Structures are given as C-alpha cells and as structure tokens.
Amino acid sequence: MSLPTGADASTVATSGDAAATAAISLRGLRKQFGDVAAVDGVDLDIADGEFFSMLGPSGSGKTTVLRLIAGFETATAGTVWLGGTDVTRAAPFERDVHTVFQDYALFPHMSVLDNVAYGLRVRGIGRKDRRGRAEQALDTVRLGQLGGRRPHQLSGGQRQRVALARAIVLEPRVLLLDEPLGALDLKLREQMQVELKQLQRDLGITFVFVTHDQEEALTLSDRIAVFDAGRIQQLGTPREIYETPGSAYVAGFVGTTNLFDAATSQRLLGVRAEHAVRPERLRITPTSAEPTTADEIRLDAVVVETIYLGTGNRVHLRTDDGLELVALEQYTGSLDSAAHRGDAVTVRFARADVVPLAAAP
Amino acid sequence: MNLSRTARRMLAGLTFGVLALIYVPLLVVVANSVNPSQSMTWPLDGVTFEWWRRAADSVGARDALVTSLQVAAAATAIALLLGTLLALALQRYSFFGKHSVNLLVILPIALPGVVTGIALSNGFRTILGVDLSIWTIIIAHATFCIVTVSNNVQARLRRMGTSLEEASADLGAGVLTTFRLVTLPQMRSALLAGGMLAFALSFDEIIVTTFTAGNGANTLPIWILNNMFRPNQAPVVNVVAVVLIIFSTIPVWLAQRLSSDVEAVR
What we know:
heterodimer; A: 361 residues; alpha+beta; Rossmann fold; CATH 2.40.50.140; six-stranded mixed sheet; 10 helices; 18 strands; elongated; B: 266 residues; mainly alpha; MetI-like fold
C-alpha cells in the first residue's frame, strides 16, 4: 500500500487512478436488502487524512455505506478500495479500518484496559507491550486513570472515549465513526466534537464520520457527502454545501432556506429555474425606506411570527403575493429593530445571494 | 396498582391454596421417608433413618441413581454442544430451510413423550438395528435437552445483539477468536442455566425412558415406578423420591438465580 501524496480535498475528484491513491474509493457501490436498495450506486473517493462526513436522514444509506467499508455488509454490486487494494470481498478482520460504534460496543466482561488492548491481543502482541500501548491510548483520550474499571461503571462520554481509544490504539489509516456522538447530551457533544477534530489532526488519520446532524457535519468536516435514498445528492466542502446547495433537498436538509420554485424565480429574477436564499441573507426594513438598486430585490411583506432565538430573531413573513419567507435577524445593538407580528415591512436581499439549485448531480 | 383489602386476602388465600396443593404432598413424601411405620401411618410416632440406611444398601436404587446421573450428564453434554451450535446457526446466519430447522428442533419438547418414545424405540431397534441400552436413553433424552439449551442461548444471543461480535471482527479477530473471547463469555450463564434445566429434565424423565431403556439400564424414576407398589419397598421409594426432589430442585434453583443475576446487572 503506497501512501498518496498531497492529495487534497479538491483534487480528489474522479480521475481515473484515484482508486489507487485515495484512502477509500467506492465504485458503483450498491447494497440491496430484499427489494430495497439501501445503497444505490455510490462513487466516492476519500483522501488520506481527510475528515469526511456522510450526512443524511435515517434510512438514507449513509450507515450502510459505512458498514460496507468496514466489511459488516457485503456489496450487492460495485467495489470498495482501501489504500489501493480491492477489499470488496474481504472480511472485517482483514481490513485496515476500525469502527467506533454508535452504541460503543464495549465488551462488558472486560476491563477498560482489556477492551482497549483487545485488538493488540488478537494480533498476538505480548501482554506487557499491549498494556503499555493501551495505557498510552487511554491517556490520549484522557482516561488514563480508569483502565481498571468495567464499561458499565463509566458515563456515556467516557465510554465514547474508550471506544475511540480501542480503535486508535491499532493505528489504523482509516477510522469509521457511526454517529459516535448521537447518544451524548448537547454540552458533552460539543466538547467531544472539538476533541475529535483535534484527535484527527494530531493523528493524521482519515475519519469517515456518519451523522444526521447537519451542524456537526458543517463544523467538523473537510468535505461532506449529503445522502438521500441511497445516493449521494451532493459532495463538497461545508461551505459549498451550505452556500451553493445543489438541489432543493440539500438546501432544505442543511440549514433552513427560502426556496423559490421556477415560476417565482421567473417573476423575481427573470430566470425559469429553482433558486434558494438563506434566511440570514434577508434584511427587514420599514416599508419604502430606500429606493431599490439593480442588484437588490425588494418585496413588501407582513410579519407573520417573530421567534426569539437568544442570538437573534427568526422572522416568518408573507409577501403581498403570498410567498412565505423566513429571515434571521441578528441583534446588532438596537433591540427595537425586531419586527413585530402584523408589521408591514420590506424584505430586501442581494441578487447575488440567491443561488440556483441545479438538478441533483 | 392498589387492590381492595378483600381482593388482596382472596388472592393471598388462593395463592396459598395452590402452593399448598403442590407442596404439601411433597412434604408428606419427605416426612414419610423418616416415618417409623412401614404402612406410613399418620401422624408420625417418631423419626427413623432406617429407610435411608436401607435405601443406601439397596443395590437396585444405587445402580438406578448412577445410571440416571450418567444419562443426565451425557445428555446435557450433547445438548450443550449441539444446542449452542444450533442457536448460533439460527441467530447469526441465514441459510436455506432455517425456519423448518427451527420448528423441527423444537418439536420434540411439544410432542407427547409416548409418541417420541415409540418412534425412537422403533427407530433404534428396527431401522438402525441397535440394541436398547444406556446409550439409547442418552440419545433419546438429548433430543429434548437440546431445545432447552438452544432456547436459552438464542435468547441471550438475541439480547446481546451483533455489535459486540462486529466490534471484535473489526478489531481484527477471526471467527473462532471472536467466539472464544467475546461470544462464549457473554453466553456463559445462559449455557449454565440451559444446561442445568436440561439436566433436571433428563433426570426425572420417565415416558421416553421407558421405551428406550434396555434391560438392566434402569433410571431412578423407572426404578421408583417398578417398586412403588411393593409393600416392603415402599418406604425406600420415599427416600429415593426425596433424593430425586433434591437432585432436580438444586439445578433449577441455581439456573433461576443465574439468569436473574444477569438480569440485574443489565
């Protein structure tokens, strides 16, 4: 296995020999459960050292793709490449990837230290050596003191760290994480997000992260694949996914958005195709304040509801011709800028902030 | 839920009545094993261990006890091995005819013992041409002992889920290593519980045994049946019955404790 050199996110497109150099390559991957195609033709290259997220609602096929990479499921069609080797038919224990499970899957009859040392044990590494390395891995996840405990004596966050330590002690090239933070409460989840990101940077290994939490995917990832119905709907950096969503589905799933159908777009922009604009790009001003400019769109509207969010307001509006809009108002010092229910206002947004939604690639 | 006073008293009375119906006769057997009167008159006019001494000297009873223990041990061993394999196959793999296999394996415990007995007896003697012996009893008992082991292990495997085994494979362990280091330790108490139930089931089995026991291979329950109505053996039969009660209660009690311990940990 040769290490790919300097393959950064944007260059790992679909070049012919990408399968030979990427950490993970999927080609035409399909997985059928009975009549249902859980994964329906996925092509993907994940670069070495990348923090890659697979984002989608439950049932979108993201976890099945992860299980196909790990080897827990066998592909109905297509191939899985790991570091240039075809592993489509290989058993999980023959693949140089390790998984952090959603339910952690710690062995309840073993101590924390034995759990972490398990992978070393089955590789025939001596007791003393594996103890040392397991202790080191526990230190990495800041659990150095708890090696003697049983998993059931740990909190959710600690179990999560043990599961991480158990995987990284084997120094895999690729770590698969299946909704690893899903069972943690918000505060702990945010803390673990930071730790995961640091860990990934320090160890320099590829992370493939499955999540249904769009915010988590946006904050952690180098690149994101948005899944729906067993296919990748869009692949890109968090910024690309958020700012130029490729389809109404992606725009709707990642963050909130204002969708304009073809007819509305025709009326507003003079282009007959679906468009979207993010709520934070809308400005709410009193009616007929300033004259409109060529690169700005103005719509007269009535405030339907104002919802206080702490950092600002979410304002639901209805324009005079019946279009429903959502705007995000950030507090900028003056509190009275907040629109009140029933107010007649003008909604303004730059033409450049309205992005066209291409049909799903 | 709160029950009225009357309802609670009625339920308590009913419970007591049913339990008394089951256990008073058992206590009578225990009492009669130390009853000095050979015709088991009531109440006892003293306590004697004469019958226990005589039972201990009875070659027939002792041989029957040894046979019973041998049969139960061997049938349990077979059941543990085959029942575990069966449970693993049914819970962890999919194969052609899986549901039929499941049904066919469970059937012996539901079929009337007489039918199983006759069928096995015919099978052994006329089809296989084997003489009935202790081995035919063992095989006959194993047919229904497998079910208890397999059911226990299957329940455990189902509750355990597959993620521990997947984690083990993910960390580099092959199929056998995973079984040895993860699956087996996880189902140890289920094996113990299933094994003990199987042992108890075999130990007091009488119907199938009647049909599959060869000459000279008497199990304890059969010996009791044969000696119950011989007046001078009756007190000894009581003693043997007490021994049987003890031998069948302990494993069941242990099995229940083991499975409830596991419940409590989870």
